[in-house]
Amino acid sequence: MRASDKAYAALRSDIIEWRLPPGSVLAEVELSERLGVSRTPVREALARLSAEGLAEPQSGRGVVVTDISMDHVRELFELRLALECRAAELACERGDSDIFRALHDRLSNVDALLSEQDPDRRGYYELVGALDSAIDAAVGNAYLAQALKGLRVHLVRIRRLSHDNTTRLAEAAREHATIALAIANGSPAVASAATTVHLDNSLRHLLAANHS
Amino acid sequence: MRASDKAYAALRSDIIEWRLPPGSVLAEVELSERLGVSRTPVREALARLSAEGLAEPQSGRGVVVTDISMDHVRELFELRLALECRAAELACERGDSDIFRALHDRLSNVDALLSEQDPDRRGYYELVGALDSAIDAAVGNAYLAQALKGLRVHLVRIRRLSHDNTTRLAEAAREHATIALAIANGSPAVASAATTVHLDNSLRHLLAANHS
DNA sequence: GATAGCTTCAGTGTATACATAGAACGCGCA
DNA sequence: TGCGCGTTCTATGTATACACTGAAGCTATC
């Protein structure tokens, strides 16, 4: 593995998991010492992070972790709605029914998904990620998939703001199950509508939990 | 201006204007000599181009200009449809009617737009670009705007494949005028529909001109 | 006492030297 | 003559030294 990849992966996870909160300054010399590589691969990593929107150059001098306000979240969900609705519609036309029917079944088993033995909800998030991947694969559009991938980075980062309780996650799982079922049935209008409903619910819970 | 910006701008325009056709290898040493800067800023420029999708690393060794097949064009237009339809809808809600009415008027004056004294159709493309910018500004969504910006880079690049004759450009201008009018009227359904029609026409002409 | 200018310094921007890996070519053997 | 192995070479990956810009703090003057 290249040193620049290592630096990129380390910084990316640090940002996404809020070990480097918004506003943190990413100084090249400090990072190169902390990560044990020279400034060159660190610079490359910072450039990639800036291109992704996780960091941004500040007044031509220094790079800082980008801020995440509720306005940003609203804008993010507006883009998300456009992309995910279309992706769901296209998956209806091109997807394999059996795959999405299986995902629907697994998503419907809420009790197993949100067991007490999984406080981090890894099982839930992995299954939701599997649905995303299945949709991407069904759509078969590299540009759309790339746009969605760039979007999901930010969504993982704001997951921390959700403070999702088990009740909401169970509700979200059912919403995802509805989407999967609509795709399995090949009903683009329903898939798009279910996606719209799910995203609206998610956004409203996010806004309510962050008093703005 | 930084040397890396200079290298980036030079390579970007070389790729977009097909001086560097798809498949061209972007060798660091050769570029650093040709552009008169060292390898470091050249590397930074190549990283930015790779992030944009204009170039891609080839098997871990060397960077090449990305290929543009008709399949890619189809995928590009699929993403474009999703983004531009939503942008047009949102512009209806948030845009200033006067601005889009003025754009409609200018786009309707096809004769002035496609005069014989402008063989490169600069007047046409600048006005279409102004409509794009007006929509972006009306929507007021940085994430959506960035996604559209990343998309338009590729669109400018495939413009070379269009072989647009005056008849088609006049038609396209009228389609753009229809979109601008729908936004000025605040009719999201019409704006979205007009965008869909326009993109379908554009794509069909592209495919017809490239026999696949 | 306040402001303007200068000095200093920290940190980025660039260049270049060195390490390294992948590929191509050639040679030898079957 | 063809295949396989080894060597060499070219181009990328990394490290580091140097240059330069922008900012902050200090001093001197009004």
Secondary structure layout plus pairing:
The structure is a homodimer of 212-residue chains.
Chain A: H1 3-16, E1 25-26, H2 28-35, H3 39-52, E2 55-57, E3 63-65, H4 70-94, H5 97-108, H6 110-113, H7 122-139, H8 142-158, H9 166-184, H10 188-209
Antiparallel strand pairs in A: 1-3, 2-3
Helix pairs in contact in A: 1-3, 2-3, 4-7, 4-8, 4-9, 4-10, 5-7, 5-9, 9-10
Chain A binds a DNA duplex (30 and 30 nucleotides) through helix 3.
What is this entry, summarized?
The structure is a homodimer. Chain A is mainly alpha-helical and about 210 residues long. The first copy, chain A, has ten helices and three strands, in the order αβααββααααααα.
Give your account of this protein's structure.
The structure is a homodimer of 212-residue chains. Chain A is mainly α and 212 residues long. The first copy, chain A, has 2 domains: 3-65, Arc Repressor Mutant, subunit A (Orthogonal Bundle); 70-209, Four Helix Bundle (Hemerythrin (Met), subunit A) (Up-down Bundle), CATH 1.20.120.530. The first copy, chain A, has helices at 3-16, 28-35, 39-52, 70-94, 97-108, 110-113, 122-139, 142-158, 166-184, 188-209, and strands at 25-26, 55-57, 63-65. A 3-stranded antiparallel β-sheet of chain A has the order 1-3-2. The longest helix of chain A has 25 residues, at 70-94. The model of chain A has no long low-confidence stretch (mean pLDDT 94). At the A-B interface, helix 3, helix 4 and helix 8 of A face helix 3, helix 4 and helix 8 of B. Chain A binds a DNA duplex (30 and 30 nucleotides) through residues 2-4, 27-29, 37-41, 43, 59-62.
